[in-house]
Amino acid sequence: MLIILLMQAWQLDYGPKPEIAAVTTPEAVTATKEDLPDTTESSTAQAAAAGQNTNSVAATVSPTPSSKIITIKTDVIALEIDTQGGTIRNLDLLDYPVEKDNSVVNKLRNLVGLPVSEKNHAPVRLFDNNPEKLFVAQSGLIAGSGLAAVPNHYTIFNSENDNYALQPGQESLTVPLTWTDSNGLVITKSYTFKRGSYEITLAQDVQNNSGKEWAGRQYSQLLRIPDTENKGNLLTGGMRAYDGGVIYTQKDKYQKISFDDMANETLDVATEGGWAAMIQHYFASAWIPPADQENHFYTKSLKDGQFVIGSYSPSVIIAANSSGQFVSRLFAGPKIQPVMEKIATGLELTVDYSVLTFIGKPIYWLLNQIHNLAGNWGVAIIGVTLCIKLLFFPLSQASFKSMAKMRKIQPRLKELQERFKDDRQRFNTEMMAMYKKEKVNPLGGCLPVLVQIPVFMCLYWVLSETVEFRQAPFMLWIQDLSVEDPFYILPLIMGVTMKIQQSLNPAPIDPIQAKVMRMFPVVFTVFFLFFPAGLVLYWVVNNTLSIIQQWYITKSIATAK
């Protein structure tokens, strides 16, 4: 398994990349997508004809002399909105600091004379206007053929205030931006924020005072530069969290659209409902159009290493001297599954448990239920370990009985080995006859270990991907279950329990195999030094329970007639 994982990681970094194929798009789709105001030549020319800013997309997120920055703060997020296009930028998650200040760990470090590193207590920045880490949320309208241009993410809006804040006792906050053209078309772009929520509602109201019928559609998209520094956010333990685009459709459900996929092929998918997102370790950003309409999802690879994923709505006709409204929702926050399940179908799948999601989700559900009772994620891990141990009790019971019988006949096997040391074939024949007579299965101890491997891998992903474990304390020096033990005490305890458990097992007859087996506790201890503390906690509790169970069974069989 280690070799396979290493090969996969090697292929990601150094393996051959697929050649970029020429994109062939049907003419009807091309004509529609040319209306989208990103950085294609046709849309740039369209913007120039309307007298708008035609710089690159990177320039659209930098303030110009005629635009201004609006600051908004709620109880959970702080962000900026550029009046040029109403683009959302520099969004901070106030409840999620980059690094946790562990006073307990710092005191222990001072006590043993270890240096205390400076921590970055700033909140995690999800959207970022820094050109090197560019990540913004854009939106706008697309006018029908032959109609005057409407505001897109290049257009300058007007705002009455520069600062908005959700006041104590206030449950929601609305930030309006307005735009009016000479023909009497009035567009009001309103962002609504709710207390305790990472969901932002965007409403684009069209008041058609032009005296003639108006037709158009809305679009919403995420523009991002890949994080080349972290290369997919290397997790504790050496595996990588997925970092890139995803879409959800009725037909294909959850699909990853990596940056390489966007560079190789332009996506164009139509589905009822659905959503498009950019996800990363622990956090996600997703535009969610109305679920009761057909939405077209698209991706684009732009210059300067920028990528776009988004959607546009069906065309809506607004009669003269009447009004209409386009609505879309933006989720920007931590990947808390119970919260995301209520926002959109399948949004919780952005918490990526790899191919073992069907096992990972029940484990997360059980962890969540126990945490709701205990209020401590470390206690929840211990509770899940007990439940898994009970689930596999019949298998482990049979395994330990087999190993106890093997241990009991060990002296007789050594006697056989001495008697037939010059006749290997005869020794194997006599050994198998003894196994049959004593009803011992030499492979009986392997099955529980093999069965637990998928559970172990799932628990690894659950602990590494679930944002609730990020900076979650357990007790004493374990103040963050999602990273390695700062003093490596748990891995050492795990090594000791593994050694004790190994001493209860029958030693291999072959002396070389016996030496290799004796090295296992040391090798696994080294591996577990860099695993999340929560995962090592699971293994320590599991080993301890196994030792108690195995000791009792071994003692019972040893004293039996």
Structure description:
With 561 residues, this protein is α+β, with helices and mostly antiparallel strands. It has 16 helices and 19 strands. The strands form 3 sheets. Strands 7-8-9-19-15-14-11-12 form an 8-stranded antiparallel β-sheet. Strands 5, 10, 13, 16, 17 and 18 form a 6-stranded antiparallel β-sheet that branches. It has a 5-stranded mixed β-sheet with strand order 4-3-2-1-6, with no helix packed on it. Strand 8 and strand 9 form a beta hairpin. Helix 10 crosses helix 16. The radius of gyration is 30 Å and the shape is elongated. The two termini are 42 Å apart. Residues 18-35 and 37-65 have low confidence and may be disordered.
Give the overall average pLDDT. 80
Strand order of the largest sheet: 7-8-9-19-15-14-11-12
Rg is 30 Å
Query: What would you call the quaternary organization?
Result: single chain
Protein structure class: alpha+beta
> What is the terminal separation in angstroms?
42 Å
Q: Under the CATH scheme, which architecture of the largest domain would be assigned?
A: Distorted Sandwich
**Can you tell me the CATH class of the largest domain?**
Mainly Beta
CATH topology description of the largest domain: Beta-galactosidase, Chain A, domain 5
Number of domains: 2
Helix content: 25-40%
- What is the number of helical segments per DSSP (H or I, 4+ residues)? 16
